Batch of 2 targets.
Target 1
Amino acid sequence: PKGTISILGLGAMGSAIAARLRDTGYTTTVWNRTTAKTAPHAAAGSTAAATITEAVQASDIIVAVLLDHASIHANLEPAAADLKGKVLVNLTTTTPNEAKTTATWAAEHGITYLDGAIMAIPEMIGGPAARLLYSGDENAYAIARPALETLGTAEYEGTDPGRASLKDMALLTAMYSMFNGYFQAAAMMRTVGVSAEATAQEVIAYNGALLPHIAHYAALIEHRDYSAGQSVDFTRTAVGSLITAAREQGVSADALEPLARRLDELTATGRSTADWISVIEQLTIK
Ligand code: NDP
């Protein structure tokens, strides 16, 4: 056996993680609020713990995969004394500030804390496409790393415990915006009977070709070089037309209105000739 790991939480993700750790040779103990979910894991060779305390006492590394920040604190705080001196890897999705709060709480109780963010769905766990981001205590990462590397590609983002989740949330923000853009396009095209599939193929081709252009924008944003490029004025007209066209089809233009507002702000403050990508400067809440 490679080592002892307890997995707290056997939802879709916790189950996939427990199975992978067990299959790769770790001695696993599992706990779940709804006890029945431990049965298939016990049948497959894990030890089922009746209480969280029992689960924590059984292993050196504790992996928590609960629902959210509140469920982590509700369940782990009563077990703080038992967690003392152990490595706690929290893979539950939380915001960066929540991760920092949990790290502070852990430090106060002598718990070595690593925060994680899972960039994968349960089916991907254990495969090369699964990326898991970690941040927090370096020693916790060093200790847990061999086990964490069995779950997918492990990437350590530094000692700031909130960093992994910040990156996760930034990437998810870009992802949701992309899909939302497709929903908007499909809603417009289906007003004339074009299928969602047909629009999907068009969006994949058009947006797919443009996606690498992000790197070009990145270089300009990095140098805050907004002197050339497509102007605010031009883009404001273009986006205005998109909003009008959506409404003409009886489709909401909510997806684009915030961008139109940012462009209006730039115009109102005398920056109508600047590169439109300067909208990024309008995003920071002052
Ligand atoms: P599920 O809904 O399948 O499972 C939720 C788990 O949390 C269950 O074990 C549930 O226990 C437990 N739980 C919920 N509330 C409480 C509570 N108050 N006290 C104790 N246990 C509680 O979710 P997933 O497994 O899919 O997700 C788990 C975490 O992983 C989430 O933070 C999610 O954001 C993250 N994640 C999930 C991904 C996915 O694709 N599924 C992708 C990336 C991250 P019970 O069985 O008793 O209800």
Note: The radius of gyration is 24 Å.
Target 2
Amino acid sequence: VSTINGTSPLSHSNGTTIPLSTFSRNSFVNVEKGDPVAFRPYWEKVRDECTVEIKGDEWMSYLGDTNNLCWYMVPQMRDAILRLHNVVGNAVTKDKFLVLGTGSSQLYQALLYALSPSESSHRPINVVAAAPYYSEYKDATDILQSRLFQWTGDAALYDKDEPYIEVVTSPNNPDGTLRVPVVNSGVEGKIIYDLAYYWPQYTPITDQLDHDVMVFTFSKCTGHAGSRIGWAFVKDIEVAKKMIRFVQLNSIGVSRESQIRAAKMIGVICDGYKNLKSIESDHLFFDYSKRLMKERWEKFKGAIEKSKVFTLTKYPTSYCHFNKDLSEQYPGNIFSPMKSENTYSYTAFAWLKCLEGIKDGESYLEKLKIRTRGGGRFGVDAKYVRVSMIGTEDEFIELCTRLSNAKRE
Ligand code: PMP
């Protein structure tokens, strides 16, 4: 098993095993949010390589690269993003415009603006996503009560012959399923692919995706959610221009300091794969993070089985070209043991369904001092709950302990 300093990813960075819980019986375990801090031990190990120094006179301008359509993006950021997709093989980047955002959340807003009909006489375009859908889409769509677009709910129920935007999240938040558009309408819709979790630690990289609008986020790729970096690949220049105009009016670009830091971290990841033969295996980010997710999922499944209160979604597994390519390219190195592990699903959230008799999963878990996000927020029944798998180690361990003890009264 390739791990940092030969310790399991579930161990602490100083090589000791997991300490006894720091939670008291009365404190809550909060697995409600999707704050991706799980990979911190990796970044702690490579902290010096990742350090960026920014001097007082640097990165003062609003501008990043006046030769680029996305004028606020610095060339280092653009190059790092293209390099990352080249290493992972999850998206076709050729013949597309790259638009940077302050997190992918800003790009979601920018896309709604850019994909809405421009004639002012038009009714708001319908925005849909198949339930269970990412809980923020609804509020992010309706917060300003725009005349351009409106949240219309579950894409599977959409039956209007009116223009629409469908958001396809794959793998999906909350339930980890791999998705395709589902709307069945006489009108051709516009599709936003939200690929926040299409990275090898969560799901097999089956295809180099080549859609008209694909959105990614640094937050869930490396775990650096605080940098607020997201990006979109867009086929149509007019859509890209409108998105860039939105970002200009909304925040006059994206923090250049954040871009420099994100570019540095991405560079460290990619250098690891480039120098694969010489580098110690524990420096490979996706190798590390995938093993961490795998260990967590195994532990979590054990806890759910013991609890006898919930059932887990059955996740489809498929073949991962990223891991396969690596194992074939470098036989005999750390990727060889992964050959048999090219089919998997270690999604960032667990999606639980209560067994008969429990109507509200969130309230049930609240009594066990476990804070989760209930099905209602995702457009489905309250017997479902979402649990974050990417929080801190302590929280995760305590979650498993409490779930294993959660025998039904
Ligand atoms: N899309 C999905 C599916 C997400 O889960 C998240 C984060 N929870 C986002 C978008 C937003 O991410 P960010 O703004 O940090 O890029």
Note: Residues 75-271 form a domain with the Aspartate Aminotransferase; domain 2 fold (CATH 3.40.640.10).
